[in-house]
Every structure is written in C-alpha cells, then in structure tokens.
Amino acid sequence: MKQQIINTSIHLFDKKGFTETSVQEIVDALGVTKGTFYYYFTNKEVLLRDIHLEYIGYLLQEQEAIMNDETKDSKAKLHDVMYLLIHSIHQRRKSARIFFREMRNLGAQYLEQSMAQRDLFRRNVQSIVEEGMRNGQFKADLNPDMITRGILGVTNWSYYWFNPEGEVSDKELTSMYLEMILNGINT
C-alpha cells in the first residue's frame, strides 16, 4: 500500500503540484481512508521526501554500477551517466519533474537529506570528469567542478522539455549532448 500511495501521489503531484494536491485527493484516488495514508506517512511532506529519496536513490544505484565498471573508460562512463539521466526521463518522467520542481516544498531537515544525495551524485560525476582529465581523455586545464555542473545542467533540465517519443530518442539525445560537451559546436 505504501508504494501505491507513492505512485498515486507522483501522478497527482505531477499533474496538480504538491501544494495543490491534498491528502484527501490522494486517498480518494486510491479508495482508502486518511488513516491508511497516515499509517505510512506522518504528513504530506514526508511523502514528498520519500519520493525524492526514492528517485535519487535509484539514480545513485545505477550510477554506482556505471562507475564501478572497469571495462569502461571515462568517456564511456560519462556517456552512460548522461544516458541514465536522460533515459530516466523516459522511465520516470513524473518522478524527475517532482524531484526538481517540488524540492522547494521540502522542509529544512528533508531538503538536507535530498541535497546530500544530489551532492553525492554530482561529486561522482565530477570524479569521472577528473579521471578523464588525469588519463588524457578530457582537457586538463578546465575547472572540473564547473564542467560537471554544466553537464548536469544540460542533462537534468531535459526533463522539462524532452519527449522520448518525439523525433529524437534518448540515445540520440545523449550522443548529441556528449558530442557537444566533448567537442563543442565549432566547425
């Protein structure tokens, strides 16, 4: 039931927004009582925190597998992490939108948990960039922190406009972004 509440809430939060969705609407959509909701969540903010932590936890788990794959060089790892983010839009579009859009509705203690996980994800990407700088795959004279933030800015905000069923697939978009990041758009 807890996961059903989460899934229903993801749908409603995506459609109406966190603040505009009431606990009553969530339980009505499920056909259960408020008591059922409060058995699993002390309040709506805890539910939002769990949605955030579930989404970033999924990304971190997948990212860890990519980073620990010793058969991949830095470019392949960077590609795969970028693809992970863009592909998650296809699989988890609503969760991605809620993660970015509704973060402002988390209280300080919950925001801190979410930010710690986001920072870990960013530091992991930065370690791939730094590894590529050390092994000569990427330019060594760039600021790895700023490059990492740029990469994440490009990929993370794709959730806002990218349509995986549109004219460009998630694989094609990842390749375009990686080409742009690695080689720029100069002729």
Describe it for me?
This protein is an all-alpha fold and 187 residues long. It folds into 2 domains: 1-41, Homeodomain-like (Arc Repressor Mutant, subunit A), CATH 1.10.10; 44-183, Tetracycline Repressor, domain 2 (Orthogonal Bundle), CATH 1.10.357. The protein has helices at 2-16, 23-30, 34-40, 44-67, 74-101, 108-134, 144-156, 158-161, 170-183. It is elongated, with a radius of gyration of 19 Å. The protein starts with a helix and ends with a helix.
Question: Gist?
Answer:
The chain is built from 9 helices and no strands. It has helices at residues 2-16, 23-30, 34-40, 44-67, 74-101, 108-134, 144-156, 158-161, 170-183. The longest helix is centred in the middle third of the chain and has 28 residues, at 74-101.
What brief labels describe this structure?
single chain, 187 residues, mainly alpha, Arc Repressor Mutant, subunit A, Tetracycline Repressor, domain 2, 75% helix
CATH class of the largest domain: Mainly Alpha
Question: What's the story with the biggest beta sheet?
Answer: none
Mean pLDDT reading: 92
**At the third CATH level, what is the topology name of the largest domain?**
Tetracycline Repressor, domain 2
* Topology pattern, helix = H, strand = E: HHHHHHHHH
Assign the CATH architecture of the largest domain.
Answer: Orthogonal Bundle
Overall tally of domains: 2
Rg over CA atoms, rounded to whole Å, is 19 Å
Helix content: over 70%
The CA-CA distance between the termini, in Å, is 55 Å
Count of helical regions: 9
> What's the count of strands?
0
| Strand residue percentage | under 5%
Low-confidence stretches: none
Class per helix and strand makeup: mainly alpha
What is the CATH homology-level superfamily of the largest domain? Tetracycline Repressor, domain 2
From the spread of the alpha carbons, the general shape counts as elongated
